[in-house]
Amino acid sequence: MSKCLLIFLTFTCGMLYFTSVTLPNYSGNYMNHSNASFTNQLLPTYQMESTHFFPHLPIQIYTANRQKFLQLKNPRKQIILLANSFFGDPQWEIPSLKNRTNSGNMSEIFCAFLNNHCEITNDMDRFHEADAVVYHAVDMINRSDEKLRTRRQSQRFVFALWESPKHYHEYDAYDKFFNWSMTYRLDSHIVTPYYTQYGYRSKDYKIPIEEKFDSQPKHVLFKNINPTQKLGTAAALISNCDVTINKRLEIIKDLEKYIDVTIYGRCGQPCPNSTAHDRNACRAYLAERYYFLLAFENSVCEDYVTEKLFATLLLPIVPVVYGGANYTRYVPESAFIDTRKFPSAKELSQRLIQIRNNITLYQEYFRWKENIIWDGFTNFFTPFCDLCLRLHLDNTSNIIGNINRWWTKDQCT
Ligand SMILES: *[C@@H]1O[C@H](CO)[C@@H](O)[C@H](O)[C@H]1NC(C)=O
Ligand SMILES: *[C@@H]1O[C@H](CO)[C@@H](O)[C@H](O)[C@H]1NC(C)=O
Ligand SMILES: *[C@@H]1O[C@H](CO)[C@@H](O)[C@H](O)[C@H]1NC(C)=O
Ligand SMILES: *[C@@H]1O[C@H](CO)[C@@H](O)[C@H](O)[C@H]1NC(C)=O
Ligand SMILES: *[C@@H]1O[C@H](CO)[C@@H](O)[C@H](O)[C@H]1NC(C)=O
Ligand SMILES: *[C@@H]1O[C@H](CO)[C@@H](O)[C@H](O)[C@H]1NC(C)=O
Ligand SMILES: *[C@@H]1O[C@H](CO)[C@@H](O)[C@H](O)[C@H]1NC(C)=O
Ligand SMILES: *[C@@H]1O[C@H](CO)[C@@H](O)[C@H](O)[C@H]1NC(C)=O
Ligand SMILES: *[C@@H]1O[C@H](CO)[C@@H](O)[C@H](O)[C@H]1NC(C)=O
Ligand SMILES: *[C@@H]1O[C@H](CO)[C@@H](O)[C@H](O)[C@H]1NC(C)=O
Ligand SMILES: *[C@@H]1O[C@H](CO)[C@@H](O)[C@H](O)[C@H]1NC(C)=O
Questions:
Q1: How does pLDDT run across 154-178, given as a tens digit for each residue?
Q2: For residue 413, is it within any domain?
Q3: Which of 407, 1, 11 is nearest to 199 (CA)?
Q4: How many distinct structural domains can be found in the chain?
Q5: Which residue puts its alpha carbon closest to atom 7 of ligand 1?
């Protein structure tokens, strides 16, 4: 089980059908804002596009109405109630919620363009007003709270979770409790992918959010790195040494027969002192010294791809991934090496050696970045923008019959 340290824009985290539910089809219905003008005051018009593009955007909603203009017509602010805590924090890291009777505005969760459309609160006294009642499924949910008995039909109870089902899966008691899911899974009502931390977009995508951002690429292009400084072939940063969780360490052991692999973190060498408490700093240290970073997920589950990959993409090192996601849904195939594409550690090692020994080939793994900008406009909680939009746009009712089944069945290997 993992504990997250969440600070706006700097995120270090060791973490993380059958039902009566009709979940929206995942078909790449990404919002295309390019023909909409956005101001804080004006109601935006959204164009739904069935085409999708790299990189996927953090703001995405799913509706059956493809290629249709949608408008936020409802003048009433939708109220989002954070009904329990986030890893013990009743404030969910949102500054103004420190005082429970205050409400937060959407700029605080990086959705300034929705300031007039939603309000966020953690005040349970406002339960009856709330349009969405969000529960972080890791923290305690007080089912005996009297207020729940007078739940309104129109309220959406939201199951919010960033962890994989390998960690938390006791949701048997929640049949017909939730209306919407909000997880990293692409078939969730609101998708909370880990890349919301590491906002990247194609160069021609216009940011709808009135936030300060730097449009210069923050990542390192290959021309800025010097592979001759690299000391070793591969490194891994691992804090959970439990071999029973998955085959991660087993694969590394096999790779070690053919190439040098250095493990850092709790299961290996400590990260150097100055980076010991900052995984991103440690990753940056490794990126200078190795050709490949083994971005192996601790859970091999559908769609589960974490900052292990997304944080690595910012650095002058090539990620070697292992996990249950279809990675090409998140980044171009030329950005990473997928362990599962190789029949054995031997073949994978041979490929890594080939790439390591050929600068031109190594360089090709960074070329996709020429069209991508990282700008830091995003945040771990950006999916709340989607929640707000959905409260305005989706008036259909939905009951998640068996959340436990949806969450766990056939998800992990
Ligand atoms: C999902 O997509 C499939 C194939 O395109 C289609 O047959 C099905 O009706 C869709 N379901 C919903 C709920 O839209
Ligand atoms: C977004 O929509 C505009 C206008 O319809 C279109 O020209 C553009 O190609 C679309 N962009 C993407 C990335 O789909
Ligand atoms: C963009 O929006 C304007 C105003 O709604 C419309 O006239 C124009 O045709 C749109 N352009 C595209 C490419 O959809
Ligand atoms: C919380 O905010 C309310 C309304 O703004 C104010 O009346 C109250 O004094 C504040 N409480 C604290 C402890 O700051
Ligand atoms: C939103 O909240 C922040 C923090 O409380 C505040 O600084 C900002 O002025 C507010 N913005 C709007 C538009 O209300
Ligand atoms: C749950 O809610 C009930 C009723 O509001 C309250 O009495 C009880 O203290 C709450 N339990 C916890 C653990 O917060
Ligand atoms: C790291 O810190 C420890 C304890 O403070 C110290 O003993 C050690 O020498 C330091 N290592 C380096 C490489 O600075
Ligand atoms: C993975 O995703 C890509 C891009 O969305 C798609 O073309 C491909 O068919 C998917 N592969 C699998 C095995 O689902
Ligand atoms: C190095 O890789 C490039 C790009 O794939 C290839 O064209 C070239 O032949 C390779 N060089 C050697 C010596 O294998
Ligand atoms: C949802 O909104 C649409 C368009 O405003 C309306 O036609 C439909 O009846 C509404 N459905 C429900 C269940 O309220
Ligand atoms: C939400 O779920 C509850 C409990 O199953 C149900 O009574 C209610 O009608 C649902 N509301 C909406 C808007 O889907």
A1: 999 999 999 899 876 689 999 999 9
A2: no
A3: 11
A4: 2
A5: 25
